[in-house]
Amino acid sequence: MVCANLNAFINRIYLGISNTRAQDNQYFLDCIILCSKNDKVYDINEAILQQFNLHAEVHMLRSVDSMSEEDRMYHVYPAEFLQQLNASGLSPALLCLKVGSPVILLRNLDPGEGLCNGTRMVVLNVRRKVLQYRIISKDRRFKSKVVLIPRIRLSPNVETLPVPLKRLQFPVRLAFAMTINKSQG
């Protein structure tokens, strides 16, 4: 349950978010909530997604988590445990999106085409193996460019997680709110 103060704050920053369908680039470039910690970012993004475009379908995209055969000593961890692991730069195991929602790219995929770590985009279409986005940027070269991004294998730094995880997921996170560090990119 989200507290009333958070809902009031969200409604002040994202005016009319419940009726929003497909916003123009400037709306999501002008509106963002900055937080100091990732756990707050997750909570706020989840709360805003529930309010965002009430008529849109929520697409829940589950990751495929695994470990390599060389890491047999870690196979004592159940799949449910792996699904709960989150780390900086790693997509969530359960990625919930709505068409029109803003996301941030977590990997450099094609810098020449504007697909860099930190690129903000809006979801246009959701499929099981590929997502279609529109880049939102002030840079004229990439502004409003439509791109397709597949699921990719993500592996966080060894120091970040207690187990050597490999996650097959779309390399994005919701971007209604983001950490201060991520916003500086």
What can you see in these coordinates?
By secondary structure, this protein is of the alpha+beta class. The chain has one domain. The strands form four sheets. The chain has a five-stranded antiparallel β-sheet with strand order 8-7-6-5-11. Strands 3-10-9 form a three-stranded antiparallel β-sheet. Strands 1-12 form a two-stranded parallel ribbon. The model has no long low-confidence stretch (mean pLDDT 82).
Task: Describe the structure concisely for a colleague.
With 185 residues, this protein is of the alpha+beta class.
Keywords:
single chain, 185 residues, alpha+beta, five-stranded antiparallel beta sheet, three-stranded antiparallel beta sheet, 5 helices, 22% helix
In total, the number of strands is 12
Uncertain segments: none
Report the total helices: 5
How much helicity do the residues have?
10-25%
Number of folding domains?
1
Taking all Cα atoms into account, the compactness measure Rg is 17 Å
Most strands sheet: 5 strands, antiparallel
The secondary-structure element order is HHEHEEHEEEEEEEEEH
Q: Output the structural class.
A: alpha+beta
Strand fraction: 25-35%
Q: CA-to-CA gap between the ends?
A: 32 Å
Mean pLDDT: 82
Shape: globular
Write the layout of secondary structure elements.
Elements: H1 4-13, H2 25-30, E1 33-35, H3 38-51, E2 59-62, E3 64-66, H4 79-84, E4 94-97, E5 102-105, E6 120-126, E7 130-135, E8 146-150, E9 152-154, E10 166-169, E11 172-174, E12 177-179, H5 180-183
Parallel strand pairs: 1-12
Antiparallel strand pairs: 2-4, 3-10, 5-6, 5-11, 6-7, 7-8, 9-10
